[in-house]
Amino acid sequence: MTQVFNFSAGPAMMPQAVLEQAQKELLNWQGLGTSVMEVSHRGKPFMELITQAEQDFRTLYHIPNNYKILFLQGGARGQFAAIPMNLIGEKGKALYLNSGHWSATAAKEARSFCEVDEVQILEQGDVLKIGNLDFSDVAENYDYVHYCPNETISGVEIFEVPKVGNAVLVADMSSNILSREIDINQFGIIYAGAQKNLGPAGITIVIIREDLIGKARKETPSIWNYETQAKNDSMINTPPTFAWYLCSLVFKHLLATGGVPATETRNQAKAKLLYEYLDHSTFYRNTVAKANRSLMNVTFTTGNDELNAKFVAEATAYGLQALKGHKVLGGMRASIYNAMPIQGVEALITFMQKFECENA
């Protein structure tokens, strides 16, 4: 193949138009004769960039004015600790909904800071599926309820928002933010590492309802204190300026290509094409219930470890990169985030058909 398609779960591929613009501006940003990486993060040009980036992101996701947007460091893992440090109050405990590896990892980290009750919502049998999501009868006994709507390792996505009554709902949307429309008002906090749909690794976005700011425990480090960060434009230290700049270009690109509604339509078309092929194949199989199949991470296997390894090796040589499944699960995984064009999915299916004919 002359074109390479990167199916990595993250850092993931970025829109080609964004990379081309960054390349064009790399040595001379805004006519300053220097790179955006070399200007002061507190200077007027960069402050204007971050102001516009926040406004573009707010427009894209229809974020109400009573929510703050923070651009932080430390990835989603950093937020695993920051959230309990900022939200645990008089109730002293949090409820974590376990749907797989990352939600379980978040719960494990939170136990260092508070009491955690963990509920298994992933039903495991012949297929993986999400069970009961109505916690309205118990949720208000907790300072917050945490869940991960898309588990990248297993390819399980939760499309229904858990019912938590008036409790604070926290969502780790690292792998599906901006992939489909949501109602921000249903959440207290949404956080996401950038390296899937927002930009490069190195920056993390936190969307937080204003009434939840200012409740951090006394010993919370300032770098993780939402109130401190909000008062300092997310810049109590030097931020990852190039990553922030690239995120700003991604936001503009998404707005120019139809926003989240158009992005969701494209994502549904890509996923539908790949899942339909898997469903009609007797060689490959996907083990996620149709109602919970991820739009972002499509997992599949031949059922044979040696064949899986051969598939990954030959796919790489064919120009289809990073299809090896996570070490926790094995098999294969095609991550088809926002920037993956449908041509990439079509190329993958063509290769899958070829491999099946040669190895069935």
UniProtKB/TrEMBL annotation:
The modification N6-(pyridoxal phosphate)lysine is found at residue 196. Keywords: Amino-acid biosynthesis, Aminotransferase, Cytoplasm, Pyridoxal phosphate, Pyridoxine biosynthesis, Serine biosynthesis, Transferase. Pyridoxal 5'-phosphate binds at residues 76-77, 102, 152, 172, 195, 237-238. L-glutamate binds at residue 42. It is found in: Cytoplasm. InterPro entries: Aminotrans_V_dom, Aminotrans_V_PyrdxlP_BS, Pser_aminoTfrase, PyrdxlP-dep_Trfase, PyrdxlP-dep_Trfase_major, PyrdxlP-dep_Trfase_small. CDD domains: PSAT_like (cd00611). It catalyses: 4-(phosphooxy)-L-threonine + 2-oxoglutarate = (R)-3-hydroxy-2-oxo-4-phosphooxybutanoate + L-glutamate; O-phospho-L-serine + 2-oxoglutarate = 3-phosphooxypyruvate + L-glutamate. One of its GO terms (biological process) is L-serine biosynthetic process. Residues 4-348 form the Aminotransferase class V domain. Coiled coil: none annotated. Its EC number is 2.6.1.52. One of its GO terms (molecular function) is pyridoxal phosphate binding. Catalyzes the reversible conversion of 3-phosphohydroxypyruvate to phosphoserine and of 3-hydroxy-2-oxo-4-phosphonooxybutanoate to phosphohydroxythreonine. This is Phosphoserine aminotransferase. It comes from Frederiksenia canicola.
